[in-house]
Design a protein that fits this description.
- By secondary structure, the protein is mainly α.
- The protein folds into 2 domains: about 10-190 and about 240-410, Up-down Bundle (Na+/H+ antiporter like fold); about 420-460.
- The protein has helices at about 15-45, 50-60, 75-100, 105-135, 150-160, 165-190, 195-215, 220-235, 240-250, 265-285, 295-300, 305-330, 340-350, 355-365, 370-400, 400-410, 420-425, 430-460; strands at about 10, 60, 70, 335.
- The strands form 2 sheets. It has a two-stranded parallel sheet.
- Strand 2 (about 60) and strand 3 (about 70) form a beta hairpin.
- It is globular and about 75 Å long.
């Protein structure tokens, strides 16, 4: 009986998975740069004579009062636009569960353990700081999130390219983060529930699922239905972004006969640019505008709530993800990828300490009754994310030459067949199998075209 083979931690993905991740992260990188610009613009507006105009725009309310939707611009961004972000997060999670890293429980265990430790340890750090200084425990969840778009923007700014294994690891961390973040929001930040509105919203989700499973198509059907589901979820008292995640999870990620892309993949391709390029930057524009002065920065490092957020993001995230990864490998049969070192895991873990978008959202929810403290916590999120980014920049730059060589090796395609040579080197028959798949798809398209032509001729012929 042969010994069980060990599993590679941060090993190379299959070519289709690698291609999908590269495309997804490319959009997130562009969105991350826009997010960075929006955050800077918000800080400029909030700390110049334009502050009055900026706050007037944030507080301007509109919407039907009878439907409980007479919301401020900032609330529309938080409850409305951010639902698009969580809709994409729901699709990502569904895809990871069906076809990605989370499909295989054994393979999923490593990144899931790392992500969970990367959420638990920051929360414990926050609790420890506030317990020792008598602070408000309400913000324990603020430093638990990772903002992958902002993290990728940092990589783009410093000119560092991560090998595909590290990029996939970072994406999986963010997906698991988003899942538990929405659970935290739904469970811990829901006070009074209107069960009638919640039941009607769930009924809308059932209708959404049935129509989707029956193959009904048309944005003019699903968009109004999605708006009704969102409005009912908002009226129920459960945070409206939960509706976005739920609808994303209901989309089908598997292929049927004659399909080149699943509905989830097609819709994600359409919606992700809206999320990354519009929804999240606009949320940041109205959420990140806090007053930053010398005294305000000093208060961040003296007040337990804000110090807990900074320490949670910079220290908790880094040591939580790194420690979780090391423990998962230590107590399983997994082995670290030979091309990488534990210092690379530590660097990515520090990059995950950039907890911008969701951390700002949770900060607003946690201290909704104390706007002044909420603004201070937002400042702590900005400073903590900035410190985590600076630490990651230093650590990643130390290994930049190594990453560049690995990326060049992954991209090399000397025979120009569209398949990187490294995959053919691992398995010489790989490109033949891929060619067979492509030929089979082409043959199927020809068959469908012939059937369509035959049907057309039959209809055009004499009665």
């Amino acid at each position: 009986m042969s010994a069980p083979t060990s599993r590679k931690f941060l090993g190379r993905q299959g070519l289709p998975e690698r291609t999908f991740i590269a495309d997804a992260l490319r959009t997130e990188t562009v969105g991350g740069v826009l997010l960075l610009v929006a955050a800077i613009l918000a800080l400029v507006l909030a700390n110049t004579p334009l502050d009055g105009f900026y706050r007037d725009v944030k507080d301007f309310s509109f919407g039907p009062e009878s439907l409980h939707l007479n919301l401020s611009v900032a609330s529309w961004a938080k409850d409305g636009l951010l639902t698009i972000f969580f809709f994409v997060a729901g699709i990502e999670l569904k895809r990871e569960l069906v076809a990605g890293e989370l499909r295989d429980p054994k393979a999923a265990a490593l990144p899931v353990v790392a992500a969970l430790c990367g959420m638990i340890v920051p929360a414990l750090v926050y609790v420890a700081v506030n317990a020792s200084a008598g602070g408000d425990m309400s913000g324990w969840a603020v430093p638990t999130a990772t903002d992958i778009a902002f993290a990728l923007a940092v990589l783009a700014v410093i000119g560092t390219s991560l090998p595909s294994a590290l990029r996939a690891f970072l994406l999986t961390l963010a997906v698991v983060d988003d899942l538990f973040a929405i659970l935290i929001i739904a469970v811990f930040f829901t006070k009074d529930i209107d069960f009638v509105a919640l039941g009607l919203s769930v009924l809308g989700l059932v209708v959404f699922w049935v129509l989707h499973r029956k193959g009904v198509r048309g944005w003019y059907i699903y968009l109004p239905l999605a708006l009704v589901i969102w409005a009912l979820m908002h009226a129920s008292g459960v945070h409206a972004t939960v509706a976005g995640v739920a609808m994303g999870l209901l989309l089908r990620c598997t292929l049927r006969d004659g399909e080149e892309h699943s509905p989830a993949e097609h819709i994600e391709h359409l919606v992700r640019p809206v999320s990354a390029g519009l929804a999240v930057p606009l949320f940041a524009l109205f959420a990140a505008g806090v007053s930053i002065s010398g005294q305000a920065v000093a208060d961040v490092f003296t007040r337990p709530e804000t110090l807990g957020v900074v320490a949670g993001l910079v220290l908790g995230k880094t040591f939580g993800i790194f420690g979780g990864s090391w423990l998962a490998v230590r107590f399983t049969k997994a082995q670290l990828n030979d091309d990488l070192a534990w210092s690379d895991v530590f660097a990515v873990a520090s990059l995950a300490g950039i907890g911008f978008t969701v951390s700002l959202l949770i900060g607003e929810l946690a201290f909704a009754d104390d706007p002044a403290l909420a603004d201070e916590v937002k400042a702590a999120v900005l400073i903590g994310s900035l410190l985590a980014a600076a630490l990651a920049c230093v650590l990643l730059k130390l290994r930049n030459d190594k990453y560049r060589k690995l990326c060049e090796e992954e991209e090399r395609d000397e025979d120009q067949d569209g398949i990187p040579d490294v995959y053919e080197a691992d398995d010489p028959a790989y490109h033949l199998r891929m060619a067979d798949i492509l030929d089979a798809r082409a043959a199927e398209h020809r068959r469908l075209a012939e059937v369509a032509d035959g049907s057309s001729a039959k209809h055009d012929g004499p009665a």
